[in-house]
TrEMBL record:
Residues noted as binding ATP in the record, renumbered to the chain: G132, K133, G134, G135, V136, G137, K138, S139
Entry's family note: In the N-terminal section; belongs to the MIP18 family.
GO biological process, one term: mitochondrial respiratory chain complex I assembly
Subunit structure: Homodimer.
UniProt-recorded name of the protein: Iron-sulfur cluster carrier protein
Cofactor requirements of the protein: [4Fe-4S] cluster
General function of this protein: Binds and transfers iron-sulfur (Fe-S) clusters to target apoproteins. Can hydrolyze ATP.
MIP18 family-like domain location: 6-75
GO molecular function terms attached to this record: 4 iron, 4 sulfur cluster binding; ATP binding; ATP hydrolysis activity; ATP-dependent FeS chaperone activity; metal ion binding
Pfam families: FeS_assembly_P, ParA
Keywords, in A-Z order: 4Fe-4S, ATP-binding, Hydrolase, Iron, Iron-sulfur, Metal-binding, Nucleotide-binding, Transit peptide
Length: 383
């Protein structure tokens, strides 16, 4: 039985806000996304009223889940602070409530220092894999880096926060939906020993979605905090590409211990990578290093190496910017073919030449984390 947006709206008309006004009449609802029996939307409320709204959120989620044909429903509360408070063009910092009663993400007045983000229970360390622009191989790197970390004996999770193009389900060959476990927490999917969560499990990869700011944060908060991660040593977050407001907000909202930047060697990509590094520095997240992807090409026939895009650019850039250089990954058909087939190299050919490169990168990342070995950094609020 297929569910329509109208079915959801009709159901929500029977759910009332704390003021007794039906949800559909209060102007608080985001766009309602319905895809293949999965329903996703957020309720935007005043930051001071989050507590009063939590039972409404829960009731809305339960009501939608009870609609015949609905297989999963995700409803999040978001609260937004206006950007007007003293900012010099800085982005608004959104405070998002943990949808099922988690602590508000950040406190603090305009221009002041925010409290560090609350840790994610059971998760020791969270790192981001980011790129200044799309298509540089960020997700491929994130997957193989996560597997490389797991190969060192760590318990590793992978959160695909690339809401604009979630590709982790495809890269790991994962299909299906995460189940709801005790305490209304989603149970991550399992892929090659990793605990995996992706917005791609909740909406179809092909579904074009218009993401508004609060929805971005709702989705991220739910995927980070409404998931039963178990006990993890490292959670690798595959960030959306770019350095816009959504990425900056994410970098602020996730208690990151560090970030890995992926770039190709071209000048233009490096300019974007530099922006990525600047973004993380701005929010006091240490940059663990740069990976140069599609660094060189080894001819499969003659073995000759060609530096297609002027290889070495990222290494030089890393030295210039004073961040570690983590390694170079060649442009190779095997990397593409295994990624696209959902059989990542580090898991399926762990001793092959490319897997060795990724595993080396993972060891360097682990060592960087150990060297950093300090508590979550203070996060500066931009007003
Ligand atoms: N080193 C490599 N050699 C060959 N192909 C690669 C390599 N790295 C990535 N690719 C391929 O390039 C394409 C883009 O990679 P990927 O999806 O990882 O990039 P991305 O930066 O995450 O992109 P986006 O952010 O736009 O989703 C994929 O088809 C992937 O298989």
């Amino acid at each position: 039985m297929s569910v329509s947006q109208d079915d959801v709206v009709a159901t929500l008309a029977r759910v009332k806000g704390p003021d007794g006004v039906p949800l559909t009449a209060g102007g608080t609802l985001s766009e309602i996304v319905v895809s293949d029996g999965k329903v996703f939307f957020s309720i935007t409320v005043d930051a001071g009223a989050v507590k009063a709204w939590e039972p409404v959120r829960a009731a809305a989620e339960a009501a939608v889940r009870a609609i015949p044909g609905v297989t999963s429903a995700l409803v999040a509360l978001t609260a937004e602070r206006s950007a007007s408070a003293g900012g010099a063009g800085g982005p608004a910092v959104r405070r998002v409530s943990g949808a099922a009663g988690g602590a508000p993400a950040a406190a603090g007045g305009a221009g002041g220092h925010a409290a560090p983000q609350p840790a994610v229970p059971g998760v020791e360390t969270i790192i981001a894999v980011a790129s200044g622009k799309g298509g540089v191989g960020k997700s491929t790197t994130a997957v193989n880096l996560a597997l490389g970390l797991a190969a060192t004996g760590l318990r590793v999770g992978l959160l695909d926060a690339d809401i604009y193009g979630p590709s982790v389900p495809r890269l790991l060959g994962l299909k299906g939906r995460p189940q709801m476990g005790p305490g209304n927490k989603l149970i991550p999917m399992k892929g090659f020993g990793l605990e995996v969560m992706s917005i791609g499990f909740l909406v179809e990869e092909e579904t074009p979605m218009i993401w508004r700011g609060p929805m971005v944060m709702s989705a991220l908060t739910q995927m980070l905090r409404e998931v039963d991660w178990g006990r993890l040593d490292v959670l690798v977050v595959d960030m959306p590409p770019g350095t816009g407001d959504a990425q900056l907000t994410m970098a602020q909202q996730v208690p990151l211990k560090g970030a890995v930047i992926v770039s190709t060697p071209q000048d233009l990509a490096l300019i974007d990578a530099r922006r990525g590094i600047a973004m993380f520095r701005r929010v006091d997240v240490p940059v663990l290093g740069i990976v140069e992807n599609m660094s060189y090409f080894l001819c499969p026939k003659c073995g000759e190496r060609s530096d297609l895009f002027g290889h070495g650019g990222a290494r030089d850039e890393a030295a210039r910017l004073g961040v570690p250089f983590l390694g170079e990954v060649p442009l190779h058909m095997d990397i593409r073919a295994t990624s696209d087939a959902g059989r990542p190299l580090v898991a399926t050919a762990p001793d092959g030449p490319h897997a060795v490169i990724y595993r080396d990168i993972a060891v360097k990342v682990r060592d960087q984390l150990a060297a950093a070995g300090r508590a979550a950094p203070q996060i500066v609020m931009e007003g």
